[in-house]
Amino acid sequence: MSALTLLDYASVLIFALTGALVASRQQLDIVGFAFVACLTAVGGGTLRDVLLDRNPVFWLGNPDYILIACAAALLVFFTAHLVESRYRLLLWLDSFALAVAVPAGVSAAMTMGQSGVIVVLMGMVTGCMGGLMRDVVCNEVPLVLKQGELYVTAAFAGALAAVSVAMFTGDPLIVLAVCAATTWALRAGSLAFGWRLPAYRARPPRS
Amino acid sequence: MSALTLLDYASVLIFALTGALVASRQQLDIVGFAFVACLTAVGGGTLRDVLLDRNPVFWLGNPDYILIACAAALLVFFTAHLVESRYRLLLWLDSFALAVAVPAGVSAAMTMGQSGVIVVLMGMVTGCMGGLMRDVVCNEVPLVLKQGELYVTAAFAGALAAVSVAMFTGDPLIVLAVCAATTWALRAGSLAFGWRLPAYRARPPRS
Amino acid sequence: MSALTLLDYASVLIFALTGALVASRQQLDIVGFAFVACLTAVGGGTLRDVLLDRNPVFWLGNPDYILIACAAALLVFFTAHLVESRYRLLLWLDSFALAVAVPAGVSAAMTMGQSGVIVVLMGMVTGCMGGLMRDVVCNEVPLVLKQGELYVTAAFAGALAAVSVAMFTGDPLIVLAVCAATTWALRAGSLAFGWRLPAYRARPPRS
């Protein structure tokens, strides 16, 4: 099994869990859980594949992805009430999903021999768009755009790190590991320690 | 005219009527009516065609679809005030659109020889995504995700019924009729009699 | 540089500025600015290219578009506080972006020899969809659907004017200039003088 396939599986599984958790906040039924889980799980990768004209779209060529997402939805439907703070769990699961999906996007674009800018963008699209679709459809404030948190920034830094490291080594495992570690470190640091970039202020204090 | 073409026409027409009804709730002008009607009418089928890489997208190959959607928008613009309860009408029209669009998606995927999982998914995408786009763009609570109603479930059951029946008969008309009937029966039963699946509850009563 | 390339560049630049302005209303950080700017800048054209199956999508073939959008985001991040009324600026910039993006869509479809209906639709998709994505993602009321303003109507009229003029002249510069001028005149007239079409009223006065 190639690194890309493995990353796709992992990101589908974890994103599906986050989708099902959002569905639990909306008190949907079991099919609604599966629907949101699948949308979140394959949304970013689907957009990546449509943009890169990869054919077929990854989950059309292998329906296992959908079955995994449905299994994740089922699991959350029957166990989410055991969790103390579902929103906290959602945030942390989402950080892992991001840290797996960004290298998945990077890997897909690199395999096709795309330029550095495109590789970075595909990493960001794959990492951020599934969660964005989940939040837009379920009418939550998109995590992607939450003020004062690193999210798109973490995806950007991870993808950039991958492109930088790829200049020095041809080993995809090292490249993807650096990508995942950078992405997750920044996102987790933002969640745990409040790391952030300065946000825009309409009236900044004069320096 | 093939069954698929006929189903596409019917689903475009009925979804366009629902789109125009939502536009009337937003008090848009006539071009706004046509815009929302077209988005709703072709949204699901377009996503299906892009995912399956069908070329060209169905309404690009035959602009009649767009003209039908615009005619539907015009009709609603001038007659919607005659209707007692527009929201009730919207719900019921939407149920017919769903029951026509799901077999349209199923039929397109079957014609391409896709596997059972993909056929079911394409039925759900074609049936649910146009209405979802309509509701997201117009800032309505998506019908797809409304609590305590069968919607995605109806689409899922209809598509599953089609795949099951297709194992026993090669006649597409029977397959598509079973699909449409199952979908509509579940959706209509949910609207008329409150049929539902148990929804997720954060603190379920102990059994 | 072809007229289409030039139009794409200009619409990317101006739409990116509007995206960054919306990001400033959401008080995002610098990467958030770039994200919303890129989404707005390439959203409409990307949808156009995916629908028309143009390959590769315009910004994948030439990453300069993304760099331009990021530069625009940077500019707005550091200068937006100098502007008296950011929303007013946003509306007017958006009108210019619309007037450039509609001919960009029209031009792409005409180059491919599409029929008149498709050309008009691609003009509308390219012009309206980027701004719509921006507003949906950032949870603003979509400009596209704002009551009592010409927006989709302006795009429609501009694209229709282009198709009409193209029957009499083969010079793409004239066609695209008429398209841009018509679009902008209607949109600007709506902003400045309140031009509008009659909107739907649930209970219209009897005539």
Automatic annotation (TrEMBL), chains A, B, C:
Residues covered by the Glycine transporter domain: 6-80, 91-164
Spans through the membrane: 6-23, 28-45, 65-83, 90-110, 116-137, 149-168, 174-197
CC annotations in GO: plasma membrane
Transmembrane helix listed as a keyword: yes
Keywords annotated in UniProt: Cell membrane, Membrane, Transmembrane, Transmembrane helix
Localization in the cell: Cell membrane
InterPro entries: Gly_transporter
Membrane topology: Multi-pass membrane protein
Similarity section: Belongs to the UPF0126 family.
Annotated protein name in UniProt: Uncharacterized membrane protein YeiH
Lineage: Bacteria, Pseudomonadati, Pseudomonadota, Alphaproteobacteria, Rhodobacterales
